[in-house]
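User: Predict structure, ligand S-adenosyl-L-homocysteine.
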Amino acid sequence: MTDKARRFPLSLSALSQKPLQSSYGKSSPANAIATPQTATKNSAQNSQYRAGRVTPVAVVPKPVAGNFAAGARSAPLVPDSLRRAMVVRLVRQGITDQAVLSAMEAVPRHLFMEPGFSGQAYVDASIPIGYQQTISQPYIVARMLEIMCNGRTLDRVLEIGTGCGYQASVLSLVAKEVFSIERIKPLHELAKTNLRPLRIANIRLHYGDGMLGLPQAAPFDGIILAAAGLEVPRILLEQLALGGRLVAPIGARQQELQLIERISKSEWSRVALEPCHFVPLRPGTA
Ligand code: SAH
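Assistant: Predicted complex:
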């Protein structure tokens, strides 16, 4: 297939996508407000989980060269310095993985939100994307990726909860193949619209219930849940490769980030990491 004929992002089921309308008109940016932060609290609390670690100096890596600049051309004018400042803040909050920091610096987060929110794109906040969902705050995206990658480039990862597609594009820079599932059809379409101009060849989007995983693409070296359930569905644990790492927020009102590692065919280890706040994981599609 020629590059010209390819439609980005690629879907699982060949490339039969129709041209899409942006869902941005569906909520009013003027009325919406960025949701409160847990990041500052988290990064302070994290110190207990980071005992023995040396506080990182603010070394900000060079951004990964990629297609991201091309997509930014038609976007609202948001200075790159704001994204750079976000990365400096991530380092202060305890993120040390250079590949993750580079990816966070490379992806223009403002392109994944309504233009009315562009000015807040590099603040450490989760921001509404419509349908009562949010784009995750930069700190938690970086933290989850750092935990999942554990210093390596992963081959195949699965994200549950594509939302607007932001985290999927950060993932595309730290993993060779990214599969992402969204249960709300208009958000799945929004992610396609957002990702298309970026022409990222290693993301595949799937509309469906992520609680069922993606058996046709399993096993995965990493699985990341962007929505909180009371437990990780067993079927997702089964779709982890041996040695694979799953990161998920667990809980209802009180949530904590957990890392689950598959240590043998029938054994998984679990570590509780830090408090967090995510939208709920829901079954079925909408
Ligand atoms: N990854 C996004 C965050 C999206 S918010 C980012 O980059 O910021 C979490 C998303 O999870 C919502 O869009 C919600 O609809 C979705 N979600 C919740 N339960 C799901 C399920 N069972 N399967 C797939 N997506 C789900």
